[in-house]
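quick one, 464 residues, struct below
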Amino acid sequence: MTLVFSLLPIAVLILALTAFRLPAWCAALAALAAGAVEAFFVFGLSPGAIAGGMAGGAATGLYPIGLVIVSALFTYAVTVESNAIADIKGALAGLSSDSRFLALLVAWGFGVFMEGMAGFGTAVAIPCAILVGVKFDPMKAVLCCLVANTTPTAFGSVGVPTMVLAGEAGLELGRLTVTIAFLQLLATSLSPFLILFIVDGWRGLRECWHLALVADVALLGSWLAVAPFLGCELPDIVGGLVAMVALALIGGRRGAFDVRRQLWAWQPFAYVVLALGCAAFLPREYKVSPGIVIFAAALAGGLCQGLGFGKLVCLAGRTAWRYSPALLTICAVLALGKVMGASGMTRVLADALIASTGSFYSAVSSVVGALAGFVTGSGTSSNVLFGALQASVASSEAQRYLFAAANIMGAGIGKMICPQSLVLGCAAAGLAGRESEVMGRAFRYFVPVLAIACLATFAAACLL
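---
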């Protein structure tokens, strides 16, 4: 019976999002309320412990997670306010008229970069809007961006999902970062080829496979070069930039844009990358939250682009207010994760998973993460829900890192068909109201990518 009660908060979250179509923050608060009531009446957790868990989870949601997200979104808002984003869009569109090349450049290269910078749906909505703006087929634009935005999730939002996962599961951040990078190599490498297939079918694969290979080598090589030495904050940011440059050199037109103008337009992003790179080498006692580093760098970039200090402060306030429902959602989900852990609900779920799957659990660990990704639409929230559970199922220290990495890999794949991503993508492409149709088409790619992820995790577990 305790298993049923342990599943109830998650069931409330799923039903609130899908059956009742409540906003994510309402669904998260409803699940938190159900979890708190159960923790007291069923599992015997004291009111003080419940309140402490909720307060601790909410505080973590605001700092450092909320600060990182708002700072990253503020960086993008600076480029919009200064109209630099128009120059960026123009340069991307001017490189080529080949839709296959543009899909890789924008959905993959720029999309991964935006995922690393901000995450939180920006890597779907913004590249999708750019593709539609250069006369791309709206349905194909949405599908390309959904596929591209799966596996980069772990290192999105300047590494917040991985940081949260390490904290929730009690794992060493550096080792977890490297484990994630290596585990995701196979599943991630599929995305550029799937993008070509979406745009132009088998002909696109035959004629442009070399571009997909370049996109893969650029991103995955950057992951393996950056993750072990600089941590989880920069792999997507550096990988996305390297992929864009490599694709532009291989398949783009020469002299397609004004270099000086582009250097001006990319200033806020460039300062963020430089600042985070420098901060990665600071001694531990001098390190500060990545959110502070990002905000300061974006502020400097905005000042260099001619925006006044007062205007930038107001812009930061508007950005925080605009995304306050999302921050509330994250705080509520983090609070729920703390309450479930303290009351023993997470342990009950872990024991049930072990009993039902036994030695084959590694084959379904990514499916658990995909379920969380589908429900929450967030890699961070998915790690709070199931990160500790996945690590607790493991029978060895190495498996703890493997199953935790599988959770975030699955969460990213689940985002391909989650309601939040579909709504954002369809809105950006002018396909509002056709989310169910997009989901049906995206499901064709969701299944094989998830299957590859499950096989990769199973094979890795067999080698440990």
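The chain has one domain: 2-463.
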